[in-house]
Amino acid sequence: MRMAGRDRAWIGRRHIMLAGPAEMPDVTAVRMAAEQLFTMKPDHRLFRRLDPNSTKWIPTPTGDIRRHCVATIVPMDDPDPDDLAGHIERLYTSAVPTLPFQIYVGRQYAALSMAHCLGDGWLSTNAFPDLLRAGLDGDPPVTLTGDETVLPLARALIGFFGRDPRRLLAAVGDSRSSRPKTTQSRFVRAAGTPAPAGTERMPVAAAGNSPSRPVEPAPAVVARRSPGSTLADIRNWRDAHAPESTSATVLFAAARVAFDRCGLGPPAGTGVFTLIDNRRFLPAGATVAGNFAVGLHIDPVDPADPVAISRTLRQTVTSGRSLATLCIVAARGYRQRLPPASLSLPTLQRQPEPTDVRPPTHPCLVLNHLGRVPRFEQLRWIGGSAGTDPGPAAPQLYSASTPGGDDVISVKFVELRGAVSVTATFHPSSFPRSAVAAAIDLLCAGPLDLLTDPDRTVTNPSPVSGANR
Predict the structure, then answer these.
(1) Which has the closest alpha carbon to 170: 179, 180, 161, 182?
(2) Contacts of 185 (CB under 8 A, 6+ apart)
(3) Over the stretch 392-446, which tens digit does the pLDDT of each residue have?
(4) Beta 57-59 vs 48-50: how paired, if at all?
(5) Among 57, 81, 283, 246, CA closest to 163
(6) Which of 78, 103, 208, 237 is deepest in the core (most CB within 10 A)?
(7) What is the pLDDT of residue 181?
């Protein structure tokens, strides 16, 4: 079975999710649910293996399904609630290269480790919780039996550009448009500009002046959860002060300021990298379980202004630029030829591997908002009702992906029960863990403060529940 070009583009990267505390099923029950899924839909992506000699998928034979489920759905000990980030890092290093995915089931926590070439966030936020729920309820996971749309990229292209070919010119023009000048934010100073008096910044050495460091191949992870009232506070503030924005762009703007305050801000005048899901260009009811999102660089007038980010995002989506970019990504993916052993490695590795790396001058922030995750909401969470703060037992859902380069800090936001779970993934050889942790602490403790209080410092950010690492 040939791997699609849009999936090949993600070869070498891995996606990890960790959920809990919640009532979890027995690992045997989850395996049984997977076997039921195979009976109903034997061609589901979860029943594929990577061909060790090519970039092709090998379907799991009926006679091997039980062995496949035992290998891919395994028990685990619950992690220390104060070291969830460390647990995610250990899942990266323990990933089995020949298995495209594994589900780990504990008593109150569960995790997913998935080769990114198998699928994007759509697959992980649907298949993972549905198998857990099926194991708990004893019902077959019928929600996962729908057929995938045939030739989804071609259908999306015809449906969008075919109806109006002028859209293609608009998409090209949008990708080539010159970057507008960065102006002072309506809320705080533009990110990347000198800090106002009284704002202390953690220094990060410039690449040209800093010594090289030993390479650490496995990515580092920082994971935090915001207070339970965060989403309600953001929406109330947005409605009153920035009605053209969204919760996602408020968090994006706050993240830009937080990293800038901690000495990890991108250069002044740079925009925002974010992922756009191209499923929006398909008819209602269409299903794409593989990779269909693409990362784009956008240039809002002010990357610290949620309204400016929202306007630029809407313009980018309306132009179809993300769809055109996915075509280029898919074409390059078909030309990609990598050693078979690289197909599902937990980290992106190149040959020959360097033994040391010089830290980059500035990070490239990649911001990804997964939004609400309704199927995870339906798990039997432990720790009180939505919107509350039950302390260490607070429901948390972290999502980490291998960063796409030495200079990348990938930040993911997940909305869950009134709070925001934030995960930052980066190469520890490139950036100090303490600086990244300080930025995420600051972001989770008060995203609105970052947009309204230009004099807030970062010397001692308030501790927030989550993986304190």
Answers:
(1) 161
(2) 191, 253, 302, 304, 305, 451
(3) 668 999 999 999 888 999 999 999 999 999 999 999 999 999 999 999 999 999 9
(4) antiparallel
(5) 283
(6) 103
(7) 43
Question: What are the b/e assignments for 153-184, b being 16+ CB within 10 Å?
Answer: bebbbeebbeeeeebbebbeebbeeeeeebee
Please return the burial class of 96, using the count of CB atoms within 10 Å of its CB with bins 0-12, 13-18 and 19+.
Answer: middle
Q: What is the pLDDT of residue 313?
A: 96
Distance CA 330, CA 292 (A): 10
Q: Which residues contact 410 (CB under 8 A, 6 or more apart)?
A: 366, 368, 400, 401, 403, 404, 424, 425, 426
pLDDT of residue 184: 44
Query: Model's pTM, two decimal places?
Result: 0.86
Q: Which two tokens stand for residue 237?
A: 């503030």
* pLDDT of residue 191 exceeding 50: no
> Longest Cα pair distance anywhere in the chain, in angstroms?
69
- The Cα 125–Cα 401 span in angstroms is 14
How far apart CA 280 and CA 328 sit, in angstroms, is 18
Please, is 243 exposed, middle or buried when counting C-beta atoms within 10 Å of its C-beta (0-12, 13-18, 19+)? exposed
Higher pLDDT, 71 or 204: 71
Give the residue with greater pLDDT, 220 vs 383.
Answer: 220
Spatial distance between the Cα atoms of 147 and 181, rounded to a whole number of angstroms: 47
